[in-house]
Amino acid sequence: MVEFETIRKEEVPFGRNNFIEVSRKKAKTDEGENEFIAISRGYYLPDGSQRWKASIALPTDKEKIEKIAELITSL
Questions:
Q1: Which residues are registered as beta bridge partners of 52?
Q2: The predicted structure's pLDDT at residue 10
Q3: What's the pLDDT at 6?
Q4: What's the pLDDT at 43?
Q5: Strands laid side by side in the 32-44 sheet
């Protein structure tokens, strides 16, 4: 079984009721732990609760994160 722990998260709202959530998470199993960055797209329901449409997990390696950030800002 995998247990997920959210270490930190930030949301960026866009459109009428959409958001992008960028978070640092930790996956814990009997074999050990793995930290990663998650980027998720979601939306708000009329009652204010959140639902997610899609997510991607990125490594926490500083060089890879910097390269991904560079690619995003250069597009």
A1: 42
A2: 97
A3: 96
A4: 97
A5: 3-14, 18-29, 32-44, 50-58
Q: State which residues of the chain have pLDDT below 70.
A: none
Copy the structure tokens of residue 70.
Answer: 């560079």
C-alpha to C-alpha distances, 5 to 25, 26, 36, nearest whole angstrom: 6, 5, 11
Single pTM value for the model? 0.83
DSSP three-state, residue 32 = strand
For residue 38, the SS3 value is strand
The three-state secondary structure class of 73 is: helix
Burial class (CB in 10 A: 0-12, 13-18, 19+), 37: middle
Q: Which domains does the chain have, with CATH numbers?
A: 3-74 (3.10.450)
